[in-house]
Amino acid sequence: MEQRKGAAVVIIGGGVTGLSAGWWLARSGVDVLVLEKNIVGWEASGRNGGGATHVYSPFGLEEQRLWPQMDELLGYPTEHQPYRIGVALSEAQLALARRWAEIGETRGFKWELLDRRQLKELVPIVGDNAIGGTYLHFGGHANPQRTVQAYAWALQDHGGRILQHTTVTGLTTRGGRVTAVETTQGAFGADTVVIAAGPQTGLFADMLGVFLPLAPARVEMIATEPLPLMRHGGVAGNGLYGRQTLRGNLVYGGGPHEWINVPDMATPDHPNTPLVRNLARRLAELLPGAAHLRVIRAWGGVAENTPDGLPVIDRLSSPDNVILATMSSVGFGLSPAAGKGISELVMHGRCLFADLSALALSRFADTPPDWRERAGWISTSASVAETAARGSR
Ligand SMILES: Cc1cc2nc3c(=O)[nH]c(=O)nc-3n(C[C@H](O)[C@H](O)[C@H](O)COP(=O)(O)OP(=O)(O)OC[C@H]3O[C@@H](n4cnc5c(N)ncnc54)[C@H](O)[C@@H]3O)c2cc1C
After folding, report:
1. 173 belongs to a structural domain
2. Residue of 327, 342, 392 to test ligand 1 pocket, by largest number of atoms within 8 Å of CB
3. Per the domain annotation, does 378 fall within a domain?
């Protein structure tokens, strides 16, 4: 295979994880190359809900610290907006919203319990079916597509390179190390390889003889026509998460997932399913003042999931120059911190600002190969209705 100019660090995958890691590395002066089989952000990174409220994560404190600075650090807008409001339509939903708020409190963040009147003052489109809610003085959301582009431009501003339409097909291993990354455009030499290929990260782990339990799932989103801007655009509840865009659209998604297989390097299709109607009905329940708005767009994306819902960010012991980075459905919000953590793993051998032991691959050492079936996570042959009955995101 033709050998092309490689880089000190080759990153497989131009989603937010790979791009953020590449940007942090490039701004530290590291020679970095991102290989992306489509265009940057084509997969989950450009299709998600934009939520950035993951304070329970080892990356959570850094996520909250970094987001308000990201526009300035990157030099391009992400449309980040702070705060998050939880709307409860039942006592069970209120208990859930409180649980999330209290997790934030244990990490030093403020929140308030809201009665219906207070809730309506903040979110005028809430209806009389709401019993109350939570006002998180933390968390937030951003525009996924602008954020992806911001990472990509900022990475290049610092001298990093991105090759789009370049599919990685294999890894050349010699002397216990990956020495080159094989692609449809030739092979690229590398000192260190970061595998941030979203749901396909598990396939690369397989190539290296490493078991990374990962289940891909299709998730749907809808966007309504615009309505006047609310004070806070990040409103969640009724099993939905989402945001109001700066144009005024409500963009919402949520469970149920449709579990699928990603058997090879093929990009999964993203057709919409009947889940879209289910999302629209639940959004009208959550925000009755917006029930008259039309759904103007809908799309699907494929999210990656580990058995415990936490990312895997780990440097392999063999080959010892490979870092696996897959985010288990929470990768957008965590991307500023995850990218920083990955860059530190590359440069210093460990993350300097957080203890990543909870994200180590070794926690799945005893996970059986049929873990998906045991967990009741099923493949695309099952009907959507059957999947819906099994729970939501
Ligand atoms: C509908 C939806 C809503 C979501 N909502 C939220 C949310 O509100 N907040 C949140 O934090 N997270 C959310 N997520 C999850 C979040 O989007 C993902 O965790 C995150 O985008 C993962 O980023 P990534 O870069 O690790 O992977 P990806 O975005 O999947 O990127 C991986 C990239 O690798 C490329 N690639 C794969 N194989 C190869 C190959 N062989 N060669 C070259 N390139 C390859 C792919 O083309 C892709 O661009 C949501 C996901 C979906 C689908």
Report:
1. yes
2. 327
3. no
